[in-house]
Design a protein that fits this description.
Blueprint (H helix, E strand, L loop, with lengths): L1 E7 L5 H17 L5 E5 L5 E4 L10 H7 L2 E4 L7 E3 L2 E8 L10 H18 L5 E4 L19 E5 L2 E10 L4 E8 L16 H14 L3 H5 L5 H16 L1 E5 L4 H15 L2 H4 L3
Parallel strand pairs: 1-2, 1-11, 3-4
Antiparallel strand pairs: 2-6, 3-5, 6-10, 7-8, 8-9, 9-10
Helix pairs in contact: 1-7, 3-6
Length: about 270
């Protein structure tokens, strides 16, 4: 049984959440911190862009009008509007057995825990493996773009995840939409006209869903977090010990916040 740290964080800004994930990545990669499962939320709602996604996809005026933030993730993929969800991050050294092998092999292991958590919540999800069509990669919205290992509920994507493999370690994070209207994201993205915006919203609802849509009632963040913790322990054979950021991690996160994730040079880099 592997001993990991569990961090349950209060809702925070998108820039802070990404800075913390990277600070843990660096620390765990050096061996200064244990492998970590971190569960968190976003306040206020925040649009996150994939590492290489063009900033031109953002409609700054609409984003500002809604009071939403924008941040660029260190991982790939497309845009996600983070609100009414539980976000997880798994951060390890390159030598952690659960993350060994190819990206898809490690995705598969983590996915077994995510599926187990969903089943514990009464969500009869399944994991589907397929190769996304080339045209699908052109969409701006993450939850309408298929991925290699997709966690599906009622034929629609429920959980989206992305992984970054760095020299210092491995970071995988993803989102479980608990409730709310998924189409809100189209209000934060740029489209050629309103017809295209409406079409994107309709297309998204055909391809993605939330836990509430299936259950008919909302799942609280704490309930979802408890299910995820239990599944990571049972499915992956982990011993999770509640912990906090170290002083060094906090200081590094503050540095990354100011110099990277809250800085336009990073957010608008592409």
């Amino acid at each position: 049984m592997s001993n990991w740290r569990l961090i349950l964080d209060a809702p925070a800004s998108g820039a802070w959440n990404m800075a913390v994930d990277e600070a843990i990545l660096e620390s765990a990669g050096r061996g200064d911190s244990p492998s970590t499962l971190r569960l968190y939320a976003w306040q206020p709602a925040c649009l996150s862009l994939g590492y290489a996604q063009p900033y031109a996809d953002v409609d700054e005026g609409r984003l500002s009008a809604h009071g939403w933030e924008v941040v660029r993730r260190p991982t790939g993929g497309r845009a996600i509007l983070h609100t009414d969800e539980l976000t997880y991050s798994v951060t390890t050294s390159p030598h952690e057995p659960i993350m060994e092998g190819t990206v898809l092999e490690s995705y598969n292991r983590i996915a077994t825990a995510l599926v187990g958590a969903c089943h514990a919540l009464g969500l009869p999800v399944s994991m589907e493996q397929h190769t996304p069509p080339a045209a699908a990669t052109k969409g701006a919205v993450c939850f309408e773009v298929p991925s290699a290992y997709e966690i599906v509920l009622d034929g629609k994507k429920l959980i989206g995840s992305a992984q970054a493999r760095k020299r210092e370690g491995i970071l995988q994070h993803g989102s479980l939409p608990l409730h709310g209207n998924l189409t809100r994201i189209v209000q934060a993205l740029a489209f050629e006209d309103e017809a295209a915006r409406e079409h994107a919203a309709t297309r998204l609802l055909k391809r993605a869903t939330t836990a509430e849509t299936h259950l008919g009632q909302a799942i609280g963040w704490e309930t979802a977090a408890q299910a995820l913790v239990g599944a990571f322990q049972q499915q992956l054979g982990l011993s999770l010990e509640r912990g906090e950021l170290s002083g060094e991690e906090k200081a590094r996160a503050e540095d990354l916040l100011q110099k990277k994730y809250a800085h336009p040079e990073w957010t608008k880099r592409v």
